[in-house]
Amino acid sequence: MINLQGVSLQVGGRDLLNNASCRIFPGHKVGVIGANGCGKSTLFRLLLKQQDSDAGTIEVPAGWEVAHMAQEVSATNQTALDYALDGDHRLRDLQHALEAAEADGSDGKRIAELHERMAAIDGYSGPARAAQLLDGLGFSHADQERPVKSFSGGWRIRLNLARALMCPADLLLLDEPTNHLDLDATLWLEQWLQRFPGTLLIISHDRDFLDAVVDGIVSFEQQELVLYSGNYTAFERARAERLAQQQVQYEKQQAQRAHMEDFVRRFRAKATKAKQAQSRLKALDRMAEIAPAHVDSPFRFRLPCADKVSNPLIDLREAEIGYPGKTILPSVEMGIQPGRRIGLLGPNGAGKSSLIKTLAGELPLLSGVRQCGEHLKIGYFAQHQLEALDAKASPLLHIQRLSPDASEQQLRDFLGGYGFLGDRVFEPVGGFSGGEKARVALALLAWQKPNLLLLDEPTNHLDLEMRHALTLALAEFPGAMLLVSHDRHLLANTTDEFILVADGRAEPYDGDLEDYKQWLLSFKRDEKRRQESDSGASETTDKPVEDKKAQRRAAAARREQLKPLTNKLKSVEQKMGKAEKVLATLETQLADEDLYSGGQQDEIARLTKAQGEARETLDALEMEWLEISEQLEQARSE
């Protein structure tokens, strides 16, 4: 058990922890949340014994193997695969000992002993396991042989994540692991962590990711550590109920709830019967329910839109998108009209960022036409937008350069909505954290009143409260929007339609994010099958063609052999369907406002417990479905 008792810590004259206590039991998966700068990463350093507390005790069981995700990586000539393998210290130590013993050759007993120990820790499969981790995190087979120094900063962080996952740990500490991941890598990591048998502490600002992975939340509140049971949604509900009991907060809660419910009603009047529109309605209903949990958020802002618009705002015709010598999307037809709200989906490297860069005018077309409306005003947030900020300039100066005639008070009021209060507006952004720089970049974008937002991973580095404020602002933004994000909560609450970028095409996608998750799993399986087929093509070209009747007989026998697995898969799918209906019913009951009118605490507790059990059942069925699918794929490939 991890046990913190009476821990106090002061850093730079500021109290991060004051007599804080918390216990985390073995095997639990816990999300660590709190505003940027509250001390989340410092807590990890305390657990790693890289920093001492000013008071109190911190106990981690003796003998536990602790793995953590480093935030920096040196530029080395070591291959990505070898770098990931280094995460398994026991394996590497045994490999080095075995190499030395075999080079010496004089002690056969020692060599046999080392081989036995390698087999005991499953060491011979180490390279294959490392390759599987890298593949899940988006590294191609060719990438795995590239030197570490050839990768950009974001991809090096992915290598650090692979290295941490490679370690056979009792305690795994992950600090914002999804910050540099796209949606498909995030989904893969979710599934990996769900299967992780040890104790997990994870700092994350991705609420859907936390919901899928953790069974507890440690929240930094007034320099104390407060432990909540359940996932992030359960934490929000518990916190909202607690705040509702505080009379000072009550009226603010009711006002925010009323505001959100009014927005939901207005959107419902406009919504079509399309599946994505209905999904967004459900998401907005849920936002109204959780709004009270964020009533004390320091961020409140809106995204104004230009008064004049053109129709269409921008039009791509026969557009060939890519770079000289490398076409990524050969023929794109896309028109963006006022009010369209599009989420871009697609696997890593399919061309989502290239499409956004082309629409923004940052990437010239290889051929075709990019037609802009007369009144088009683009607000573009790129993945590397923070690097474009002037490190020596303050937030105030950044906006003054755009509007020299605006009064200082007007600018200070505006920046206050982004959390820059008092003298913070005069500080150079070079000393800001990543989250603070992201808030400056969003403030600059909003100040320009665009009528088309092009957003490529805008939530990187933002904490949960700022993400919540951004979600509300984007949901109410009256202009058009194109969004790429690994934050599914943001996508679900702010977009009305999806475009799927894959296989060299950008086409409308009718499903919702759950459908896309299944599509992505299928896509990855097909891609793996294609790679295996391509690698084996040269071996089969010289083989004689088998008799067609024999082939049919063999295929029939194969189907019969696989029948138990296929039947089992169908059975699990039926159970998943029933479990989803049960969960939907419970969520509908919990969303009923009359339930919280007072005197029904036992019923709330019963329904919440039942919801947790239903979600666990569904998660277990999904894992079983994945395992059976993998067995089926493996059996088919044998």
UniProtKB/TrEMBL annotation:
Protein's organism: Microbulbifer hydrolyticus
Biased composition (Basic and acidic residues): 540-549
Protein name: Probable ATP-binding protein YheS
This protein's UniProt keywords: ATP-binding, Coiled coil, Nucleotide-binding, Repeat
Residue numbers spanned by region Disordered: 528-569
Matches recorded under PROSITE patterns: ABC_TRANSPORTER_1 (PS00211), ABC_TRANSPORTER_2 (PS50893)
Coiled coil: 569-638
Family statement drawn from the similarity comment of this UniProt entry: Belongs to the ABC transporter superfamily. ABCF family. YheS subfamily.
Alphabetized InterPro entries for the sequence: AAA+_ATPase, ABC_tran_C, ABC_tran_Xtn, ABC_transporter-like_ATP-bd, ABC_transporter-like_CS, ABCF, P-loop_NTPase, Val-tRNA_synth_C_sf
Superkingdom of the source species: Bacteria
Annotated GO MF terms: ATP binding; ATP hydrolysis activity; DNA binding
Every ABC transporter domain range: 2-247, 311-528
